[in-house]
Specification:
This protein has 29 helices and no strands. The N terminus and C terminus are likely disordered. It folds into 5 domains: about 140 residues; about 120 residues, Four Helix Bundle (Hemerythrin (Met), subunit A); about 110 residues, Four Helix Bundle (Hemerythrin (Met), subunit A) (Up-down Bundle); about 150 residues; about 260 residues. The protein is about 80% helix and about 0% strand. It is an all-alpha fold. The two termini are about 55 Å apart.
């Protein structure tokens, strides 16, 4: 239905375009002063007004129907279209219907130019109406939004530049506010950072050369392996594979206890319901007014619903207690309802009291049965307790806290003693199942862990062997100990897999002892020799640097820092000193790797001291404080402009949020306060945050602009394709009319008067079509699509020639030459429509794949599509030249003279020459745009078959072919 409405609106638009052609020759006038053609156009205009009224009525009823059916989007489109029809174009302007009526009045008054202007406005409004119905964006609206976005970006760019300039002025003030002592402090900290870096580099270089760093890495890996081995050993020592079957037997009485407790709980719940129902029945018995009757009915319904639930559980589980509870609840509900009816029917006031007694008896009976189930649950728990006592008495040693079954045993003890009843029983079962699940895989897990540990021990031994220290006696002792540890771990893995806990634990303990021996040997292997002397030199240099840092810490109090900055600098320098002392101690012990970590910590602390020293500078003189206040005023102005910008931005319809700009406004306010306090360091950071936030907002606006430009290009493509299709349809009709007139003409004779009139009318329509082609050409050229624009230019020129030749100036031609030009027009329009359709499909595919590609200068169509069409245009020129040479062989003769040629033939040759020249010019423009070398240049010549640049893509080959045809 929506498509039908769109087609109707498009038909209105097409119909109004007819009188927009050039004014026809004077025609006979009627009695009222208007010509017959003007009267016919006036009637057509009135018919369009009636169609518009019918369209409005149809859209109104459709909108109401769609709203009823819940088709909100379609209804919204129709409501928007109706609003567009009813809207006045400006204050005191006209609605669409009034514009049509005005056009009709102008036609009836013989004012054709004014009528055409009114009809052009109507066509534009109908196109907007069609866009609304088809849910398409409006190009004019998109242009306004794009211009608004560009204006917003310009404002933000000015604000970002102003914030950057403010940062420079703040930095200048910070430099001017630093006294000599402050500059000396900052230079000293920078020198300390450089010196510490140099010591770190020497340490790392020496450690790599001597192998000390690799040795420390192996020592760290060995420490980690010892920790893991001790964990496995602890688990093996508490593991008792024979305990699992005994514990699994305890699950049977516990399961029985849990079932009995569930039955007891179910019966107790039903008894409680019956007791409450008995109380309600007693209250009804004492109610003289009978107001409790409604409560009895509601209670009966509740009891019957509970009975149904219990019945479902009984059918699902086969539990007798559930069936018994269901039976009792159902009987209670029926008894309550019977007591209520007896009282209402016969006035038996004692019926509720008798029922209350029956309900109480039933509740007590259920509770008695529940007590029996609890007693049986206690017996089952006692069985579990006895089994637990036997397991604990038979255990080799008490199970330590945290062992695999520790939690399960504790819960079993609480359940067996009757503590917490059902809750303890369920907890014991849960922990027991968890422990049994873990125990089932514990042997395999321990076996895999010991095998992995054995592999790690082998890797550490191989690493020691590759080092120079591995050749020393201590290194050999470490490797031997690691081999023994790996062998013991392998034995522990096999025993654990077979469930032999004692042998597995013993082997794991031997492995742990061997690893500890290897650790001691590695510690003896480190240090000594030339490497030890080099590390000793570093150990002496490190404290010297620490002493210099201490002097810097004492200088912090005489710089240009405020109290907070002074404390921060001193604290950072103190941390640097501590790290340096640690590095010196580690170097003395020969631990280069640990020393390197401490040296890095010292560098980071020194960097922090440098930042604090820089940021802690405050204005000292009155003039400097005054400058800071001036900068605060400038920051406040930027903050105000940011706020005003946000207010304007948020007024935009569907404006996406700009959180970065909100953060920028907040940081601008903080920078203003910091400048007012003279806190230049904090102000600079906040100014950077402000500028960063503004720049991020600019990026967000650019993305939104790209989105709107893509929408605009898509809509423009749609409109141009629509117009090209309409032009092709019109040209097809005019070509058919031309052929019909030409077939009616006798060979060699001039056109009759009637044929001249028809040819003049066709020529007028061709001229109008040329005007439409000119508008399309201007729109395409404005978007930078030069080849597409050139193709439409050729269409326009051919149409103007056809109009000229078919008119009086061309002596009313209608033969093959005119028809060939018309065929060229249709062919070129077909090419253009095909290229536009391909570009629309490409964009649609990109949208489906959610891939956004940058098209350089945001042209309507990409360069590839333009180049393909450019090649087709040049091919067309070459084909036309071949056809001319075939039709006129005398053109190829060397003695052919231009003056002897037929003027019409010469005009065709000049037409082709002009088109070839335009094709060459367009390719030159593409070469400059794409940065391609000129044909025959050194860059092009050098890239022959053997050159790297000679093998471009097929498209580049096409471009070179086009360029070669420029001469």
């Amino acid at each position: 239905m929506k498509l039908a409405l769109c087609a109707l609106a498009l038909a209105l638009s097409s119909g109004l375009s007819l009188p927009a052609a050039a004014a026809p020759p004077a025609a006979p006038r009627q009695d009222d002063g208007t010509t017959r053609e003007q009267a016919a156009l006036s009637e057509e205009q009135a018919l369009l007004v009636r169609k518009l009224n019918r369209l409005t009525t149809s859209m109104t009823s459709l909108a109401e129907r769609f709203e009823t059916e819940g088709r909100a989007h379609a209804a919204q489109l129709l409501r928007g279209a109706l609003d567009h029809l009813a809207a006045r174009r400006a204050e005191g302007g006209h609605t669409l219907e009034e514009l049509m009526a005005s056009a009709r009045a102008e036609l009836e008054g013989g004012r054709e130019v004014q009528a055409i202007r009114e009809q052009e406005s109507v066509i534009a409004e109908l196109e907007r109406l069609l866009a609304i119905l088809m849910d398409r964006a409006d190009v004019e609206q998109l242009d306004r939004q794009l211009e608004d976005l560009r204006d917003l970006k310009r404002q933000l760019s000015h604000l970002a530049d102003a914030e950057a300039a403010l940062q420079e002025r703040t930095e200048a003030l910070r430099r001017d506010s630093s006294n000599a002592a402050q500059r000396e402090l900052e230079a000293g900290i920078a020198a300390a950072v450089a010196a510490q870096r140099e010591l770190l580099a020497r340490n790392e270089d020496e450690a790599r050369r001597s192998g000390a760093m690799q040795l420390e890495a192996l020592q760290a890996a060995l420490e980690e392996l010892i920790g893991d081995q001790e964990t496995d050993l602890a688990v093996l020592e508490t593991w008792d594979p024979g305990l699992a079957p005994r514990l699994e037997e305890l699950g049977l009485p516990l399961e029985g206890a849990r079932r009995e407790e569930e039955r007891a709980a179910r019966l107790s719940a039903a008894a409680e319901r019956l007791g409450a129902a008995a109380e309600t029945a007693r209250a009804a018995a004492g109610d003289a007014q009978g107001e409790e009757g409604g409560k009895l009915e509601r209670l009966a319904q509740e009891l019957e619903q509970a009975a149904e639930q219990q019945a479902l559980e009984a059918r699902a589980s086969g539990d007798e207690s559930a069936a018994r509870a269901a039976e009792a609840l159902r009987a209670a509900g029926q008894a309550l309802r019977a007591a209520r009816e007896a009282r209402r029917a016969g006035g038996d006031g004692a019926a509720p009291a008798r029922t209350a007694g029956q309900l109480q008896d039933a509740a007590e009976a259920l509770e008695g049965r529940a007590a029996g189930h609890r007693a049986r649950a206690a017996q089952e728990r006692e069985r579990a307790r006895a089994g637990l006592a036997g397991i604990q008495g038979e255990a080799r040693e008490p199970l330590p806290a945290g062992s695999l079954f520790d939690a399960a045993l504790r819960e079993l003890g609480r359940a067996a003693s009757g503590q917490r009843g059902r809750e303890a029983t369920e907890g014991a079962l849960r922990e027991l199942r968890r422990a049994l699940d873990q125990e089932a895989f514990l042997g395999q897990a321990l076996s895999a862990s010991q095998r992995a540990n054995a592999g790690r021990a082998g890797e550490i031994g191989a690493g020691i062997e590759r080092l120079a220290q591995g050749a020393a006696p201590a290194g050999g002792e470490a490797r031997e100990a690691l081999e023994q540890a790996a062998a013991a771990m392998g034995a522990a893995a096999e025993d654990a897999a077979e469930g032999n806990q004692g042998r597995a634990a013993a082997a794991a303990g031997q492995a742990r002892d061997a690893l500890q021996v290897a650790r001691e040997a590695l510690e003896r292997a480190g240090g000594g020799g030339a490497a030890g002397r080099a590390v000793g030199e570093l150990a002496r240099s490190q404290p010297e640097l620490g002493a210099k840092v201490e002097q810097l810490r004492q200088q912090a109090g005489v710089g240009s820092l405020d109290a907070q900055g002074e404390d921060a600098v001193e604290s950072a320098l103190e941390r640097a000193q501590g790290a340096m002392r640690a590095a010196a101690g580690e170097l003395e012990r020969g631990r280069s790797g640990s020393a390197a970590r401490s040296q890095r910590e010292a560098i980071e602390a020194l960097r922090e001291a440098a930042r604090e020293a820089r940021d802690g500078v405050t204005p000292q003189e009155q003039a400097e404080r005054e400058r800071a206040r001036e900068l605060a005023g400038q920051q406040e102005e930027i903050e105000k402009l940011l706020y005003e910008f946000m207010q304007r931005y948020q007024e935009r319809e569907d404006a996406p949020p700009l959180p970065s700009l909100e953060r920028a406004g907040a940081s601008a306010g903080q920078a203003r306060d910091s400048l007012s306090r003279g806190d230049l360091g904090a102000a600079q950071e906040q100014e950077e945050d402000t500028e960063r936030g503004v720049r991020e907002a600019i990026d967000a606006l650019e993305k939104e602009q790209d989105r709107y430009e893509a929408l605009r290009d898509e809509e423009l493509l749609f409109r141009i394709a629509e117009e090209v299709a309409a032009m092709a349809e019109t040209q097809g009709r005019l070509s058919a009319q031309t052929l019909e007139v030409d077939q009616e003409r006798a060979d060699g004779e001039g056109a009759t008067r009637a044929q001249k009139l028809r040819l003049r009318r066709i020529a007028r329509d061709e001229l109008a079509l040329a005007g439409r082609a000119g508008e399309v050409q201007a729109a395409i050229a404005q978007e930078g699509s030069l080849v597409f624009a050139e193709l439409v230019t050729r269409v326009r020129d051919d149409l103007e020639r056809v109009a000229r030749d078919m008119g009086e100036v061309g002596e009313y031609q209608s033969g093959e030459r005119v028809q060939a030009l018309q065929a060229d027009v249709l062919r070129n329009l077909g090419w253009l429509a095909e290229a536009l359709e391909q570009e629309k499909d490409r964009r649609a595919q990109e949208q489906r794949q959610q891939q956004q590609q940058n098209q350089g200068q945001n042209r309507l169509v990409p360069d590839v599509a333009e180049l393909k069409l450019l090649r087709r245009l040049e091919s067309e020129v070459l084909e036309d030249l071949d056809e001319l040479l075939e039709l006129f062989p005398e053109l190829s003769a060397a003695e052919a003279e231009v003056d002897a040629l037929d003027p019409l033939l010469l005009e065709d040759i000049l037409r082709l020459a002009h088109r070839h020249e335009r094709t060459s010019d367009l390719f030159e423009e593409f070469r400059r745009r794409l940065g391609l070398p000129d044909p025959g240049s050194s860059a092009d010549t050098a890239s022959g078959p053997d050159g790297g640049a000679g093998g471009g893509s097929s498209e580049e080959g096409e471009e070179r072919d086009l360029g070669g045809g420029g001469d």
